[in-house]
Write a structure and sequence with these properties.
Number of strands: 0
Largest sheet: none
CATH class: Mainly Alpha
Distance between the termini: 52 Å
CATH architecture: Orthogonal Bundle
CATH superfamily: MetI-like
Radius of gyration: 23 Å
Shape: globular
């Protein structure tokens, strides 16, 4: 009997499609419907309206959208810079210290984000470094949470990078800085873009640590969505959720086009 016959493959794909539809597509469809709902007393919503989207682009919701975008960009750029530097620095170290120091970057991803937020709140709520109540502590929380994934992606990219290119540049008399700028980083460009994309997507959806440390006037969109749904304004929260998904997806698609354009040139 052929285990992977055509019928078996069709059955496997059908089960996978059903699970994906139930787990991913159905909840997303319900959120999309709720974002247009005026009322929802039956199986489907009624009195469909665009009012929730109009509200999302005005007042506090518009400010929360900008705050999420600024926070995601700042935290992702910082994580990209630090993660790149760390991956490059650990690349030439001996295996044991390399593994030990590399593990430190993954510690924040091994604990709940609420614990990270609480730790930062306790650590920076008194002099000499007082960050509690500032924008910096929110960006720092996001940076701590996403830097592990940036470091991991770039370390994987460096491991797959053939040293022959850098050795050839060095044999031709290129300095380390020149080789880094003109050889190593261009070869790592796909990993740099992928790392930034992942960091940005994770930052845009981060809630646990943010809700512990955010100051008044710097409310991210996930915190705003949580506040709306907690007050029973589910339809408004659904509209903000769809905008959050759309903004994150648009940024990821734009970043995904960068390597193609660079290759074209």
């Amino acid at each position: 009997m052929q285990v992977w016959s055509r019928g078996t493959r069709w059955a496997a794909w059908s089960v996978a499609g059903l699970l994906a539809g139930v787990v991913y597509l159905l909840p997303l469809a319900m959120i999309a419907l709720a974002s247009f709902a005026g009322q929802w007393n039956g199986m489907l919503p009624s009195h469909l309206t665009l009012r929730h989207y109009a509200d999302a682009f005005a007042g506090d919701s518009a400010a929360e959208l900008r705050v999420s975008l600024y926070t995601g960009l700042m935290a992702s750029l910082a994580a990209l810079a630090v993660g790149s530097a760390a991956a490059l620095a650990l690349r030439h170290m001996k295996p044991l210290p390399q593994r030990l120091l590399g593990t430190l970057f993954f510690l924040p991803s091994a604990v709940p984000s609420v614990s990270v937020g609480l730790g930062l709140l306790v650590a920076f709520s008194r002099p000499p470094l007082l960050l509690n109540g500032t924008v910096a502590i929110v960006v720092l929380a996001h940076f701590v949470l996403v830097s592990a994934y940036t470091f991991g992606n770039l370390s994987a990219g460096l491991a797959r990078l053939s040293p022959s290119y850098e050795e050839a540049a060095a044999n031709l008399g290129a300095s380390y800085g020149y080789t880094l700028r003109r050889v190593t980083l261009p070869l790592l460009a796909p990993y740099l873009i992928a790392s930034f994309s992942l960091s940005f997507a994770m930052s845009m959806g981060e809630l646990g640590a943010t809700i512990m440390v955010y100051p008044p006037g710097w409310v991210t969109l996930p915190v705003g969505i949580f506040g709306l749904t907690d007050r029973g304004e589910v339809f408004g929260g659904a509209a903000l959720t769809m905008l959050l998904i759309a903004l994150t997806l648009a940024m990821l698609l734009a970043l995904a086009r960068i390597p193609i354009r660079a290759k074209h040139r």
